Amino acid sequence: MADTAGIIDILQLINSENLGAVTFYKLLEAYGSAAEALAHLDGNGRAKILPRGRAEEIFALTQERKIQILCYDDATYPAALKCLNTPPPVLYVKGDARLLNGKPAVSIVGARNASINGRKTASRIAYDLTNNGIVVVSGMARGIDAAAHKGALYAQNRQGPTIAVLGTGADVPYPAENAELYEQILRQGCVVSQFAPGTQPQAANFPRRNEIVAALAEGTLVVEATLKSGSLITAACAARYGKCLFAVPGAPAEPRSFGPNNLIRQGAQLVESAADILKVLHNNPKPTVHDIVLPELKAPARTLKPVRESVSKPALNDGKTKIIDYLNFDGVYVDEIIRASGLSSAEVALELLELEMDGKIERQSGNKVTLIKR
């Protein structure tokens, strides 16, 4: 694990403007350490580096609020996240961080406006899983998430652990109505965030939160979700990571059943009780769904063409179209850019790195990039 100065280096680099996890690791690869990367960026005048004093404030705040910092190179960093292509460089953990590398886990997600039966089902399954040694992971949202956490907390004579992954800072309970639930989770489990202390709710943070919910668990259970539910982002992540995917079926005419029923049609394990999940987890090999199609989350295949239609296109390396001309505000897969531009993956990676440092693009989940609106 890095010393205090090394941790502050990492905090300063990852919290710098227009610098995401992908760029963070590319800079480490190029310069060997966060300190060397900061020295290089500070000298070229392009990157907007977080002031050193602000990074020191973040570190001091974690100490004051009893938030543990787990860096990517820390031995206690969750092993499940180290397997990702781009794990969050820093995690902020409040509560019992040992849960992140302990017992097997299952994430439970679903609708915020869940039905009474949906809440009861999520709570009961979480209760039974916890009593069978499985740690329940969720996002502490209202509805299914909250019901799952409560079921886990009530298990083991009301001492059951659970992990809440937040889209805010680890010290910011959200929604406010779950403040009491947040405190109970801290007493019996832990909360995890990849965002600095004090970070308030931002829409762009919750899909990133969902990726961690899926990655920390061996499988994800969806209980009630419309076809536009954010819970299906978690399901898509679980499928992409090769995790087990579970779903509770519902009535065909009920919109909150459309998501789970669609997952089951595509191969997700039908679940009526915790026993169905435990049976799958105890089998080897475990059935997984790798190629799930969620139309509302994945754009249809298309031939990628430059966005700009000017007669005279700006040149890039002997007349080739600039990488930025292939981008849009909806997001484009990096693989599509490589195919359409004819450049090598290394050349595209370098161009994208420079665009990100210039604040012109941002990274999205699933190896996509998007233009930043001005």
Care to describe what's here?
α11 (255-265) links the parallel β8 and β9. By secondary structure, this protein is an alpha/beta fold. The chain has a 9-stranded mixed sheet with strand order 1-2-6-5-4-3-7-8-9, sandwiched between helices. The protein has a 3-stranded antiparallel sheet with strand order 12-14-13. Strands 10-11 form a two-stranded antiparallel ribbon. The protein has 3 domains: 1-64, no CATH class; 97-282, Rossmann fold (3-Layer(aba) Sandwich), CATH 3.40.50.450; 315-371, Winged helix-like DNA-binding domain superfamily/Winged helix DNA-binding domain (Arc Repressor Mutant, subunit A, Orthogonal Bundle). The protein starts with a helix and ends with a strand. It is globular and about 60 Å long. Mean pLDDT is 87; it is low at 295-320. Helices cover 41% and strands 14% of the residues.
Q: Runs with pLDDT <50, length 5+?
A: 295-320
Separation of the first and last Cα atoms: 39 Å
The count of DSSP E runs of length 2 or more, i.e. the number of strands, is 14
Kindly report the CATH topology of the largest domain: Rossmann fold
User: What's the number of structural domains?
Assistant: 3
Strand content is 5-15%
**Total helix count?**
14
**Helix share, percent:** 40-55%
CATH classification class of the largest domain? Alpha Beta
Strand order of the largest sheet: 1-2-6-5-4-3-7-8-9
Q: Give, in order, the helices and strands.
A: HHHHEHEEHEHEHEHEHEHEHEEEHHEE
